[in-house]
Amino acid sequence: MNQESQPSFPHRAGHGATPGLFDATSKLAAILIGAAAVIAGLAAGLRNPFLTDAASSQGAAIDALFSITLGIAAVIFVVVQGFLLYSIIRFGQPAGDETDGPPIRGNASLEVIWTAIPAAIVVFLALFSYRVLADIERPRGDEMIVEVTARQYAWEFYYPTSDIQSNELHIPLGRQVLLKMRSTDVIHAFWVPEFRIKKDVMPDRITEARITGVQLGTYPVVCTELCGAGHAVMRSQVVVQSDAEFRIWTASQAAGKLRAPADPLAYGRELYNRLACNSCHALTDAAAVGQIGPSLDGIGGRAGATVAGQSAEEYVRLAIVKPNAYLVPKYQPVMPGDYGLRMSDAELDALVQYLLTRK
Ligand code: CUA
């Protein structure tokens, strides 16, 4: 190898000439850019709190852990950067000084200090995290169980004690709720940002999470595991209500279930939303705005003319149980093929009849 073709370090080049890369203007520019970035970052950070207030008791415990970790990290950052800055100013190479620095062979007490302090911090954080984890996973006496089913691309909440099924999670204020979660297809993840709780939902096992709402309000339930074309719209909401409101909601859900078949239109509309058709197909009558699949407004009027020799009813029924038999142009074959298994024959009939009325 030819020695002369090797690049030489800029500050070793020449005899005392100021190399271009590190001249005073460049240094000043670097400092100004750095300072501007820090100020812009602080301004953006202060204007946009990246965590909303925790609305669950678990969230408060997690926030405490987060604040302490962030505080320790901030102190370490300032101390280390402080030493660095001090060393640059105090021990920087004076202009024209080309000599080597003095040889130094370790420093036992310094090494003990910079090993012991981080070790103590790590042990402290491990114990603290363990306590928080044990606390947020501990069952409290009268917890309420809700079974959560995730599927492409909807959430379903089932209350076994009252035999109620809903697209929204309603929980009473201050009561611990145990979520038993399962997926019918791929891996999803349950996340309520305001609760700070995030947990994978798997097809082959039941995962659990405990939540206790401590602030009345409505918060988003977000799927936070990429699960397919409709991942971004796989959302629901959790409503934290007072005990009385929760009881009214439970009663109205139970009553709705009994009354439903008596009013075919209302029942069809309820099925449409309960089976999560609404998350992909817009339908004005059901207040559905999904965009993944074709809009079903007017489906009853045009279904009969879609495939030659097939009645409107046959077409609608087939489109539900065998969604890929005929694809509406420009739409992807993403509708699950198991809708026939998800509902009873009576429910399928009711849904088909309901859609046929949409002319
Ligand atoms: Cu379900 Cu992403």
* CATH level 3 topology of the largest domain: Immunoglobulin-like
The bound ligands are: dinuclear copper ion
Low-confidence stretches: 1-18
Number of helices: 9
The helicity comes to 40-55%
State the end-to-end distance: 82 Å
The CATH first-level class of the largest domain comes to Mainly Beta
CA-based shape: elongated
Question: How is this structure best described in words?
Answer:
This protein is of the alpha+beta class and 359 residues long. The protein has three domains: 103 residues; 115 residues, Immunoglobulin-like (Sandwich); 93 residues, Orthogonal Bundle (Cytochrome Bc1 Complex, Chain D, domain 2). It is built from nine helices and twelve strands. It has a five-stranded mixed beta sheet with strand order 3-2-1-5-8. Helix 2 runs antiparallel to helix 3, helix 5 crosses helix 9 and helix 7 crosses helix 9. The chain is elongated and about 95 Å long. The N terminus is likely disordered. Dinuclear copper ion binds next to loops. The site of dinuclear copper ion has 9 residues, from loops.
